[in-house]
Design the sequence.
């Protein structure tokens, strides 16, 4: 049986879709633009693509995107919906498929016009009669922030984590965003500003929450032979893992532990590295608490010590663990699902093309997607060896 | 129990729950094999993955496991600020609820009460004990 060690798998191309507020595109045309650009980086064309993996592109999304792009001979198709973690999970799936020679060139793509079409829905997600409509909706918990607020409140209660510590994460993201011309929010931000912003669901303030923007992107994964065509340095995927826990917050086994504990263990295990070896991390910063708990679950610090860990600018430019290096969902872009853009940034850092915000001597990077109400997780470990 | 009745609430699995709720009785599932309790209802115990489950009544006493104060209006039906909590029943399962009064905190003991609704069966809600 072939495996990623014998058959290495590379990310040979990455691209963002148009970002911010997008009025001259549909989601499908945004994906098309990004796919073409990512393929150009890989030195390949749409005709080379025989694997297609998408999420949130409508019913049977891989089929809709495949048809739009004229890909009619795919032999690996995947519309796995793990929410915001889907894209790191897609990298996992594509990696295994390519290593086992079930496809050679895989396209992972996503786009959303969440901002220009409707904004974030601050309401129950349940319409039909479901467990959620019966036992969650009647109590008026705003989705998703109220759910993450319950998680943050529990973490604070159990471990003494503070709002100041959570705010440090938003400040770190903003400081990175100030070095990214594509970032949506670039004005200076302090811990005080975060704490003074409107409280939405205690303990989470407006500035503990990610942006609502349009955006998306594309990735090309391929084998060693095809990667030789790449115009830019191919980045090797050395580990990947995924997991999931609950759909309803009442069923989350422990509010302070996410599915990242399993996806991280799987990804680091496959890669044969530990968090100590990691030069930078792109955690899913849907909310500040998402980052803090993710760093614990991935093993960057012990459970409960995340608050102290993120303090004193550790995640910010100049800190010992650069994180959210493009500004994250908090300050750069959050197009409904951020996971794909985490991969794009990790690849750019490992290629050394991140400009002003480049992490010096970056050799090993991690992207970590999260979906639902901290329900799903997928972790990818990459290197530029 | 007729088929029509079973689907009265749109979910045949929770039908017994809402029938009991109409009499202000809170019922959850109990596993005959491993003794654990679960909510929401399933055809078997998810703790031991094999056990046969039965409905049992609970007083509904519990402790606040986590809590948030909602300060934004999500629909005309809700008037912020109000508290929403995950309550851990003494039997183990957690249930989402709003909590009367703004001073409640994690670790507080809570007790069950029922909120009458015009368009649905009474809703279980928890209040400070
Ligand atoms: Zn059991």
Sequence:
């Amino acid at each position: 049986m072939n495996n990623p060690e014998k058959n290495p798998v590379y990310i040979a191309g990455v691209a963002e879709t148009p970002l911010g507020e997008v009025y001259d595109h549909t989601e499908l045309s945004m994906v098309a633009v990004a796919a073409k650009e990512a393929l150009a980086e890989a030195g390949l064309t749409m005709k080379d693509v025989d694997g297609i993996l998408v999420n949130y592109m409508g019913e049977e999304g891989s089929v809709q995107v495949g048809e739009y792009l004229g890909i009619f001979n795919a032999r690996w198709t995947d519309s796995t919906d793990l929410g915001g973690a889907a894209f790191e999970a897609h990298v996992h799936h594509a990696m295994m498929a390519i290593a086992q020679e079930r496809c050679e060139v895989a396209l992972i793509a996503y786009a959303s016009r969440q901002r220009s079409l409707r904004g974030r829905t601050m309401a129950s997600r349940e319409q039909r009669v479901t467990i959620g409509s019966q036992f969650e909706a009647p109590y008026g918990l705003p989705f998703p922030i109220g759910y993450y607020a319950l998680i943050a409140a529990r973490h604070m209660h159990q471990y003494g984590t503070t709002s100041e510590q959570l705010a440090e994460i938003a400040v770190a993201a903003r400081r990175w965003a100030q070095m990214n011309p594509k970032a949506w929010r670039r004005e200076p931000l302090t811990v005080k500003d975060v704490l003074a912003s409107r409280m939405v669901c205690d303990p989470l303030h407006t500035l503990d929450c990610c942006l609502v923007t349009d955006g998306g992107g594309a990735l090309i994964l391929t084998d060693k032979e095809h990667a030789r065509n790449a115009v830019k340095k191919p980045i090797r995927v050395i580990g990947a893992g995924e997991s999931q826990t609950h759909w309803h917050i009442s069923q989350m086994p422990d509010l302070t532990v996410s599915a990242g504990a399993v996806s991280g263990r799987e990804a680091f295990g496959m890669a044969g590295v530990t968090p100590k070896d990691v030069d930078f991390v792109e955690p899913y910063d849907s909310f500040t608490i998402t980052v803090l708990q993710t760093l614990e679950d991935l093993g960057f610090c012990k459970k409960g010590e995340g608050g102290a860990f993120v303090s004193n600018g550790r995640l910010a430019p100049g800190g010992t663990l650069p994180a959210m290096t493009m500004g994250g969902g908090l300050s750069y872009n959050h197009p409904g699902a951020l996971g794909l853009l985490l991969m794009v940034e990790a690849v750019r850092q490992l290629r050394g093309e991140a400009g002003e915000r480049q992490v010096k001597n970056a050799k090993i990077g991690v992207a970590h997607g999260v979906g639902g109400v901290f329900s799903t997780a997928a972790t990818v470990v990459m290197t530029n060896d | 129990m007729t088929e029509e009745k079973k689907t009265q609430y749109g979910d045949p699995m929770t039908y017994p729950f809402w029938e009991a709720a109409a009499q202000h009785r809170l019922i959850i599932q109990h596993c005959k094999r491993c003794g654990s309790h679960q909510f929401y209802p399933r055809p078997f115990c998810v703790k031991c993955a094999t056990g046969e489950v039965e409905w049992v009544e609970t007083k509904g006493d519990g402790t606040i496991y986590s809590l948030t104060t909602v300060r934004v209006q999500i629909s005309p039906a809700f008037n912020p600020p109000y508290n929403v909590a995950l309550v851990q029943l003494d039997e183990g399962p957690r249930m989402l609820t709003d909590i009367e009064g703004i001073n409640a905190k994690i670790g507080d003991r809570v007790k069950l009460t029922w909120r009458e609704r015009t368009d649905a069966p009474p809703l279980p809600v928890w209040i400070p004990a």
About this structure: Chain B has a mean pLDDT of 92. The pocket of zinc ion is lined by residues B 31, 33-34, 36, 45, 47-48, 51 (CB under 6 Å). Chain B touches chain A through 33 residues (CB under 8 Å). The two ends of chain B are 36 Å apart (CA to CA).
